[in-house]
Amino acid sequence: KDRPKWGFSLSLDTLKQKTERLIEYGKQRNGYKTALSMLNISFRNLGSLESLEYIPPYDYPKSTFDYFCQNCTNLKIVDSLNTSESTSFIMMVSGCVNLIAIYSPLDFSKPSSADKLNRVFRDCKALVTVSFVENSIPFSLSFAHSPLLSDESIQSIIDGLATVESSQTLTFHADVYNKLTDEQKQTIARKNWRVAS
């Protein structure tokens, strides 16, 4: 499936080539023999590596995505991730200031407490595209630093909220909050969530 072209000059083919350089680095440093093995560890704080601008499809289940791409400041695209078995997402893409898109719906249904969703999207200032499995977000979540979320992403986040017994808070950047329709606000409230900016 073709991906939308965003406002940066590198093509996805070039990003993939750069990613191959990252994988080669991982083999040399860690002795991993396959790309999958490299991808099964965290990319945390590898933002200084020029090649880490794209993470290819990664369908291997992980028990946790804590700090997965934290502070990878050159990262622009995460193609797809298997999050269905993951129980924690602490600071998963926190500090990824140039991240534009995460393709494939995220599933946040397994975490057992609010702290497991702590600062997942902090400082994701360029984020446009993100989506969620419906009814899979059980605890408060913040997109306070993401003013560029698309209308489709906003709706998917709202659809992703689980109906909860104890009230939770969905936080948006003020620019996104001001775009919410009355119907969207009512849907959020019906699920026992409050929306803040």
Overview of the structural elements:
The chain has helices at 12-30, 35-39, 151-160, 174-177, 182-190; strands spanning 54-55, 77-78, 101-102, 141-143, 168-172, 193-196. The protein is globular and about 50 Å long. It is of the alpha/beta class. The longest helix is centred in the first third of the chain and has 19 residues, at 12-30. Strand 4 (141-143), helix 3 (151-160) and strand 5 (168-172) form a beta-alpha-beta unit.
| Class by alpha and beta content | alpha/beta
Return residue spans where pLDDT drops below 50 for at least 5 consecutive residues.
4-10, 31-41
With strands numbered from the N-terminus, the spatial order across the biggest sheet is: 1-2-3
Helix tally equals 5
The helical percent reads 10-25%
Give the CA-CA distance, first to last residue: 34 Å
The gross shape turns out to be globular
Query: Oligomeric form of this entry?
Result: single chain
Mean pLDDT figure: 83
